[in-house]
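User: Hi! I'm working on a homework problem where we have to compare a predicted structure to a textbook description. Could you give me the structure for the chain below?
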Amino acid sequence: MPKRVLQGIVVSDKNDKTIVVKVERRFTHPLLKKTVRRTKKYQAHDEANTYKVGDVVLIEEGRPMSKLKRWVVVGAVASTGEAVAG
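Assistant: Happy to help. Predicted structure tokens:
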């Protein structure tokens, strides 16, 4: 089974080797037929402390690393000032 990959914005980088990523999903409400936005925060492993608040990153499912951390950062989609390193 393939691992899920999500895209989101880094909202916190205070912890060592961990970032908090806010992922937004949009869907049509089944009854009202209106587009609804829902957000969820995921803690992801960032080994080199590379990513900062505001960066748009891709995260992928991984093994459990702590009580809440089950995602690993794959790479940056966009950065907040410097060039994006792939």
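For your comparison, note the following. The chain has no helices and five strands. The CA atoms of residues 12 and 67 lie 18 Å apart. Good luck with the assignment!
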